[in-house]
Design goal:
alpha/beta, Ribosomal Protein S5, domain 2, 36% helix, RNA-binding
Length: 132
RNA sequence: UCAGUCGGCUGGGCGGCCGCUCCGGCGAUCACCGAAAGGUGGCCGGGGAGGAAAGUCCGGGCUCCACGGACCACGGUGGCGGAUAACGACCGGCGAGGGCGACCUCAGGGAAAGUGCCACAGAAAACAGACCGCCGCGGCGCGUUGUGUAUUGUCGCGGCAAGGGUGAAACGGUGCGGUAAGAGCGCACCGCGCUGACGGCAACGUCGGCGGCAGGGCAAACCCCACCGGGAGCAAGACCGAAUAGGAACGGCGCGGCGGCGUAUCGCGCAAGCGAUACGUGGUCGGGAUCGGUUCGGAUCCGGCCGUUCGGGUAGGUUGCUUGAGGCGCCGCGCAAGCGGCGUCCCAGAGGAAUGGCCGCCACGCGGACGGCGCGCGCGCAAGUACGCGUCAUCCGCCCUACAGAACCCGGCUUACAGGCCGACUGAUGCU
């Protein structure tokens, strides 16, 4: 699994599809090439101390390694932004949330050419395009 | 046995499955990403967080920059000795205070160089002075049958600072003598100042002599004195090095505007033709510089485009990057901090940042239940029994571990921390 390292890649992913969950926010961006899927992690200082940030990033990384592997699409950059609840939630729950977020992110990409989204009198938050 | 003081160590163990990172070896010489520099990818073996890695409060190494010296400014330190690469930290003495004690805590140059401050309270806060008060004398009154004395009130003059009260602090303290009352006025002890001898490297201590006491506190208010101190930091620094913009050199094609003619190509059109672009040709108008030159006129160059090369340098990459005032063991020196010698070991090196995720068993700890034993105590004639404490065994549950994550490296300090272990010492009490 290739990791995102460059700041520019993170900034590019920040403007793409987002899928928030209790413990994290998943971002996904389609690149122009067909290279392998890459993933990066963002855990800010707001989350907690250095020990807590390390632990949070390691749990997220493990979820991606165990459950994400075959589901990540080639040519995509993913970014997981860690949130504080990820420290306490059970591991199985985190895996389910990641699975759901991945589906929403891919579906949102498919519906990206819809002009119908302003017509929906719905949520102004950049939430998921569908309810799961 | 109980109570306590000080110091040190430790910071769960074993196993299973799946991963991460670094090093070495083998394999491949290939594939992928990138413009390049460079990076990623296989198999085997080995290494992989802390006592605080933290705060970044001091000190050093290392790197770059600056640099003749002195003074000033600014900052720091402040009894003495030792140790060190260095320090305000460390070790051992010294002083003051607290504790029965082991020991703990605190301040540590100068207040007779100067300035400033001392709130509130209090009469008075620094230079002496006197609110209540104490004492004497005088006048008037009270008292007395009268006079005097004693007592007492009030006014005036004078002496005093013992007592009261205020305060963080009140012009040395306590006691005795002394006195009208008092006062270092006199004496003893303590304190203070000066001084001598002895001990100690020294800070200082011990003993003695002299002085009747002069000099309130704050220097963490300014200040004075002595000593120390260049600045910035691994995002330091070194090397490699895009795109874009800008710089330099070389080469090539072209002077610029306007209209004319010719040729070629393209578009539209059946065609004639029209339009656009490029090249050639000559006409007219025109900016700057240089050259030879009397002017006219002429020549070259610039302002334009294209290509190649070079240097600086951004993103990015590589390095610095872990062998070091290093760890461990033994011996020697030292009360100690620490120093020396010998032997031995290599012990994390990430970089949007590895050292992890899930699980099983065990140990430790905490809570609960029940039972056994011991002790205390209540009830009871007694058997016995309620309650509390300690301990042991079984079962169940909880935490399934505290504080916390290297970022160039060391020496200290400070702060956080579930628990466990060890040693030295002190005071009570019991037994021998």
């Amino acid at each position: 699994m290739e990791r995102l390292r460059q700041r520019a890649d993170f900034l590019a992913a920040a403007g793409a599809e987002k899928a928030p969950a209790a413990a994290f926010v998943l971002q996904a961006r389609k690149r122009d090439d067909d290279g392998p899927a890459r993933i990066g992690f963002t855990v800010t200082k707001k989350v907690g101390t250095a020990t807590e940030r390390n632990r949070l990033r390691r749990r997220l990384r493990e979820i991606v390694r165990l459950t994400g592997g075959p589901r990540l699409r080639t040519g995509y950059d993913y970014v997981l932004i860690g949130r504080r609840p990820a420290l306490g939630l059970p591991f199985g729950r985190l895996a389910e949330d990641f699975d759901g977020a991945l589906r929403r992110v891919h579906a949102g990409r498919a519906a990206v050419k819809r002009p119908a989204i302003p017509s929906r009198t719905g949520p102004r938050a950049p939430g998921p395009g569908e309810q799961s």
